[in-house]
Write a structure and sequence with these properties.
11 helices; alpha+beta; 18% helix; eight-stranded parallel barrel; 31% strand; 715 residues
């Protein structure tokens, strides 16, 4: 982990059995009399070989063993006084603890983060022993951890397997259940739901790629796992900040094929074990892993996880949750790009209510990705093709960005660009890319879509992390980066690789393609097309992903659904069967992407959608500040479904509800996180009525394929 902006409060506490403690540096804050470092409610201490980190919501305790490894001793849900580790009585290490030093810093770790306490434990300090880092925020029941090894383990040190074991304990609650979460990237080639939850230890034919039976248990690949006590609905969730399992550099070859299955979680003989694979004989650093406790079952888990995500990237209303338009969704490539086209597009975007105007690929002087020889691009890179690759195209932007930026700002819009970091030579030109992005930012571009990444090696991964980190830090968090997870064969950081950079660009979807390939079409992975646009599929992926991400960090598309109606035949769920305002409503709980040439919209589309956009803008800040819970059933084109945003003070919230294509005119849904009471319900948009019955919301929508947007306030 890099924490270049952690500030001002650094201290040292030595736990050395053979020598007296070293003097503390002179700083503004000294450890308390109990030896703990404190920052608000957060605390960290090391006493007699026992490391303790926590706040008022969670507390974790580890024993530092003689070989320098950490043994999980306690995982406490402080809010409920619920201990998750069986046999957590004695804290005495099994062997004499080695010399080790604990230091602590506090403050924001970066310009997009909330302040936190960062504790660093060095074992055998100064001799290359393992380094353990922990981060904890005051307002979340979560602790982030990683570990570093500078070189080969010292003689007598823990074996690599032990150092790579991040967690190992027997859960205390009887009858606990496991759920592993499979999340799909490379969405150009994946048309199904992007999230699948798999309960228990069973290994089925559908998940043998990510699971393996072993003696008295199983092991699994993934980024998200949670265990839960069905009697109390309390649980523990682990989140690994890493690329998806099929896209991690250590698991793939130079063509992106998986060559080794590296398992993340093992459950055997009643124990839960979490592993990394990044520490090697030459050293290394593990991916960050979050351990989070929660109460209240599904809704409590979602709320706790969203609150944690917003510590890593705080919600800023003028920066986050904005409508961004990008003309690539029309599938015209650079064909229409010109200065006059862009001028018209900006004016049209303003009429729709767009917040950010973005130009996709084609503005640059270099060869366009669809026409450039891919072999050449991969063997010499962008700068090998042309040193002026990222200059403005003289025909498309003869006057650069400034006139267009000024026009957008006159309409109250911000500006963005598509950009593709040079993946050649393990992103060896990352510093050139950084310099060019900063130049473009200085000219007015603040929203960048990073695309076409190819990260095959740990060195390339490190270069990309440095690129993103330095861009975020050097712009004070004013630069927002959408990371694209659509690439069919290109390994990328994905959903979890950069939690504080900005939104995830989830999917490319288009209306331009028939279901089957036209005669004479060359063989392709894309046929039958997996990237055709259906509003209910976009709603489904948002509904699923919002359970594990802050939905404001999901860039989800709405389109001109009146185009290409003939290509859908008689499909009852074709885009044209839904109203334009319904299409926009499907992404109102995300950062909406107007994936279209806005100037091509029919007048009726703008007349219907622009007023809804204005209503949404008036309420989006309050809605996004709440805990946004998917409710109803998973969208499938025929469901009752939606979202509920519970206000932080639990005095009300917002409900966005959808009646898909079905015959059921009324429905009752639970109001998660709110206690029963008397609520005033106001209809903000859509067609329908609603009232609160106890702790449930009764909704009536008279027409199929309709929605309603509601505000609830406790009387």
């Amino acid at each position: 982990m890099n924490y270049p902006l952690l500030t001002v409060l650094a201290f040292a506490l030595l736990a050395v059995t053979s020598s007296p403690a070293a003097p503390l540096p002179s700083r503004d804050l000294a450890p308390a009399t109990d030896g703990a470092f404190r920052f608000g409610q957060c605390h960290a201490s090391l006493q007699a070989g026992v490391l303790r980190i926590g706040n008022g919501r969670i507390e974790r305790t580890w024993r530092v063993e003689g070989d320098g490894s950490l043994t999980t001793h306690s995982l406490l849900d402080s809010a409920q006084s619920l201990e998750w580790v069986a046999g957590s009585g004695s804290t005495a290490p099994a062997t004499e603890p080695p010399p080790c030093a604990l230091t602590a810093e506090s403050g924001p770790a970066g310009p997009t983060e909330e302040p936190s306490l960062l504790a660093t434990l060095r074992v055998h300090p100064g001799t290359g022993g393992p380094i353990y880092r922990f981060q904890i925020f005051a307002n979340t029941a979560a602790i982030v951890a990683d570990r570093t090894l500078a070189g080969p383990p010292a003689v007598g040190a823990a074996a690599l397997g032990q150092l790579n074991r991040l967690e190992s304990f027997t859960p205390a609650p009887a009858g606990w259940t496991l759920t592993r979460v499979r999340i799909f990237g490379r969405t150009d080639l994946h048309e199904g739901p992007v999230v699948i939850e798999r309960p228990g230890l069973a290994v089925t034919a559908e998940d043998t790629n990510d699971s393996e039976r072993i003696a008295d248990g199983a092991r699994f690949r993934g980024n998200v796992f949670f265990i839960e006590d069905p009697r109390t609905s309390a649980g523990v969730l682990w989140l690994k900040y890493a690329p998806l399992a099929d896209e991690r550099p250590r698991a793939i070859d130079d063509k992106g094929a998986v060559v080794q299955r590296l398992f993340d979680l093992t459950v055997a003989h009643g124990q839960v074990m979490l592993d990394s694979h990044e520490l090697a004989a030459t050293g290394g650093q593990t991916y960050r892993t979050v351990s989070l406790v929660y109460q209240g079952g599904r809704a409590g888990r979602i709320a706790a996880l969203q609150r944690y995500h917003r510590q890593m990237r705080t919600y800023q209303p003028g920066r986050d949750g904005l409508i961004l338009c990008n003309s690539w969704g029309e599938w015209n490539s650079r064909k229409n790009l010109s200065a006059p086209f862009l001028v018209r597009e900006i004016d049209a975007a303003a009429k729709l209510g767009v917040d950010v105007f973005q130009i996709d690929a084609g503005w640059q002087n270099g060869s366009f990705p669809e026409t450039v020889d891919r072999t050449k691009r991969n063997t010499v890179g962008h700068y090998g093709i042309s040193p002026r690759y990222w200059n403005f195209h003289p025909e498309i932007l003869p006057n650069g960005l400034k006139p267009l930026v000024a026009q957008a700002r006159a309409h109250g819009m911000q500006f963005g660009l598509w950009f593709s970091p040079d993946s050649f030579n393990e992103l060896g030109a990352w510093e050139k890319d950084k310099a060019r992005v900063l130049e473009l930012h200085a000219e007015g571009a603040s929203y960048f879509k990073f695309d076409l990444l190819r990260i095959f090696t740990p060195r390339a991964e490190d270069h990309f992390q440095r690129l993103v980190e330095e861009l975020i830090h050097e712009t004070g968090g004013r630069l927002t980066i959408d990371l694209d997870v659509t690439g069919g064969h290109s390994p990328r950081p994905g959903y979890f690789g950069n939690p504080h950079h900005g939104p995830i660009f989830v999917e490319n979807r288009f209306t331009n393609f028939p279901l089957n390939a036209p005669p004479g079409t060359p063989p392709s992975d894309f046929w039958p097309r997996k990237d055709r646009y259906f509003p209910h599929c976009t709603l489904r992926n948002l509904w699923l992903l919002a359970q594990y991400f802050d939905p404001v960090r999901l860039r989800m598309e709405f389109m001109n659904n009146l185009r290409n109606q003939d290509l859908y035949g008689d499909d009852p769920l074709a885009p044209a069967h839904w109203s334009p305002e319904y299409v926009f409503a499907t992404v109102m709980c995300s950062s909406p992407l107007a994936w279209m040439e806005v100037q091509q919209l029919p007048a009726v589309y703008v007349e219907k959608v622009a007023p809804l956009v204005a209503i949404w803008k008036a309420h989006r800040e309050a809605m996004f500040r709440g805990d946004l819970i998917p409710i109803g059933t998973e969208p499938n084109g025929h469901a009752w479904t939606g979202f509920f945003s519970a206000a932080p003070d639990r005095t009300g919230g917002y409900a966005l509800l959808f009646r898909e294509d079905n015959d059921i005119t009324s429905f009752e849904l639970p109001l998660p996180l709110l206690t029963a009471g008397n609520f005033e319900v106001t209809t903000l948009a859509g067609q329908g009525t609603a009232r609160v019955n106890g702790d449930r919301l009764h909704v009536e929508l008279p027409a199929a394929r309709s929605f309603v947007f509601l505000k609830l306030q406790r009387k």
